[in-house]
UniProtKB/TrEMBL annotation:
Assigned protein family: Belongs to the short-chain dehydrogenases/reductases (SDR) family.
Coiled coil regions, renumbered to chain: none
InterPro entries: NAD(P)-bd_dom_sf, SDR_fam
Identification of the protein by name: SDR family NAD(P)-dependent oxidoreductase
Record key words, sorted: Oxidoreductase
Pfam family, one: adh_short
Length: 248
C-alpha cells in the first residue's frame, strides 16, 4: 500500500533520532519514515544503521545515515551535525532522544566509575550538548519538537540502577528546564515514558519470565510520531505516557 506523504502526520518534516539502532530507536525511525518524515539515523553501530536504512528505504522514504558515538562525541561534533542538517534542509523539525546506556543492575559500591560516568554522559550530558547545538536549526522550523524518552522514575529510583537511574531523573529535569526556557518559542519540549518494552537494554535487568508486562517497542513508536507531529503540542512541557501506542 502506497503512502500519501503529503497527508501523513510528519509530512515534509526532518527528524533526527539518536540511538536509532536500539529497540525503540529502530521502531520509532521506521514509524517516522512511514509518517512522511525524512529521518536522520544517528547511532554508533554502523552495520545496524545500514540495515535499518535499507529496511526503511524498501518501504518508505529513504533515511539519512549519520554514524556518531555519543560517548566520545564532543560539542564540536554536534555543532558539525547541526550545520550539516542546516546546509542540507535549512531547518530541523524534530529531535527524538532514544539513546541510553545501561550495563546491568549493580550496587553503587561495586560500580565501575567509568561505567557510571558513561551512563550519565550518554543519558544527560551528550543529549544536552546535542540539543544545544541543534536549537538554532530547530528555531528555523515553524513547529519544532524535542522529545526525550524517559524511564519510569519510580522503578529506576530503586537499588542498583546506578548511573542509568540517575540519568533518567536528570532527563526529566532537563525537560522541565528546557520547557521553561523555550515555552514561548516555536520549539517545544516533552518527555515520553513508553512503559516497559522488550529491548536489549531492558533484558540486562530482567529475564523473560520476570518481564511478562513488557511490550514490543512498536507499540510506543506511534506515540513518538504523535509527539513529533503538530498534535504533540498538547503535551508541551509534559512527560507523556505512551505504553499502548497512544498518549495519555
Amino acid at each position: 500500500m502506497s503512502v500519501d506523504y503529503d497527508q501523513a502526520p510528519l509530512a515534509g518534516r526532518v527528524i533526527l533520532v539518536t540511538g536509532a539502532h536500539g529497540g525503540l530507536g529502530t521502531a520509532a525511525s521506521k514509524a517516522c519514515a512511514r509518517a512522511g518524515a525524512t529521518v536522520v539515523l544517528m547511532g554508533r553501530r554502523v552495520r545496524q544503521l545500514e540495515r535499518l536504512h535499507d529496511a526503511i528505504a524498501a518501504v518508505s522514504k529513504a533515511p539519512v545515515l549519520y554514524p556518531l558515538d555519543m560517548e566520545g562525541a564532543s560539542p564540536d561534533d554536534y555543532n558539525e551535525l547541526a550545520q550539516r542538517i542546516d546546509d542540507n534542509y535549512g531547518r530541523l523539525d524534530g529531535l527524538l532522544h532514544c539513546a541510553a546506556d545501561f550495563r546491568g543492575l549493580t550496587p553503587i559500591e561495586h560500580t565501575d566509575p567509568a561505567a557510571f560516568a558513561r551512563s550519565v554522559h550518554i543519558g544527560v550530558t551528550a543529549p544536552t550538548w546535542l540539543t544545544q547545538a541543534c536549537l538554532p536549526v530547530l528555531r528555523k522550523s515553524k513547529d519544532a519538537s524535542v522529545v526525550f524518552v524517559v524511564d519510569d522514575l519510580t522503578r529506576v529510583s530503586g537499588a542498583y540502577w546506578g548511573g542509568y537511574g540517575v540519568a533518567q531523573h536528570a532527563r526529566v529535569g532537563l525537560v522541565s528546564t528546557l520547557h521553561a526556557e523555550l515555552g514561548k518559542t516555536s520549539v517545544r519540549v516533552a518527555g515520553l515514558q513508553p512503559g516497559p518494552m522488550r529491548t536489549g537494554l531492558r533484558a540486562k535487568a530482567f529475564v523473560d519470565d520476570m518481564d511478562r508486562d513488557a511490550r514490543d517497542p512498536a507499540f510506543a513508536a506511534d506515540a513518538c510520531v504523535e509527539l513529533l507531529s503538530p498534535a504533540g503540542a498538547e503535551y508541551r512541557g509534559e512527560i507523556a505516557q505512551g505504553a499502548s501506542g497512544s498518549l495519555e
